């Protein structure tokens, strides 16, 4: 049986560039981990596709998944719910794949208490004005919603202290390289490598 895959959790305030960095990461040819598509009650943005960007559901459907115990974590973010469907994560990890999640901080902390051996990475912006500029530049939210997200960001950023790693997203390619370095070295941690290694070591007979 293959070793259970690890969980890699990327968080950071809205607009910092999590999606941009994740897409650049997954475009690299040597990436062998799986992306967990989140579920949300938010309406799709132009161009977003159900089952690719998110699983878009109603509030009732979302609550039903919670009742059935099918969410690894979930959180209310501004006016909508977001969460990680558990069956996909379990299946991939059981098959030995590492699974990559892109989620906000409250959900990440729920996972931290359930899966302390996960790898928790906080992506952070060069400054609040730069963050606001990115959200305005993305052009997907109204100004009042951007203001709410920025206010939330100011409370989220100090929560980086609860993560294993902080990566500054000043340049996308640099952030991608840093995340790849983190994942490569996490795979070599003694507690991940030793059980398999010892099992295969055998004796001298
Ligand atoms: N390093 C960067 N420098 C300048 N702009 C960036 C950088 N990274 C991302 N951006 C831009 O910032 C905007 C927000 O990026 P993105 O949508 O990836 O953020 P996000 O953290 O995934 O947001 P959300 O949490 O709301 O989904 C996009 O327009 C993107 O092109
Ligand atoms: N706790 C979770 N947060 C999630 C999940 N999927 C996305 N997110 C975060 O929500 C906000 C807003 O996202 P947006 O797409 O409306 O801009 C952002 O911080 C996302 O990272 C999830 O499954 N769980």
TrEMBL record:
KW ATP-binding (keyword) present: yes
Q: Where in the cell is it found?
A: Cytoplasm
Mention any one GO cellular component term assigned to this protein in its UniProt record. Answer: cytosol
Instruction: State what protein this is by name.
Output: Guanylate kinase
Which parts of the chain are coiled coil? none
**Broad EC category:** transferase
Alphabetically list the UniProt keywords: ATP-binding, Cytoplasm, Kinase, Nucleotide-binding, Transferase
The record ties this protein, via Pfam families, to: Guanylate_kin
Q: Which residues bind ATP?
A: 12-19
SMART domains according to UniProt: GuKc
Q: What SUPFAM superfamilies has UniProt attached to this entry?
A: P-loop containing nucleoside triphosphate hydrolases (SSF52540)
Q: Give the molecular function GO annotations.
A: ATP binding; GMP kinase activity
* Protein family membership: Belongs to the guanylate kinase family.
Domain of life of the source? Bacteria
Which reaction equation describes what this protein catalyses? GMP + ATP = GDP + ADP
HAMAP family annotated for this entry? Guanylate_kinase
Keyword Cytoplasm on entry: yes
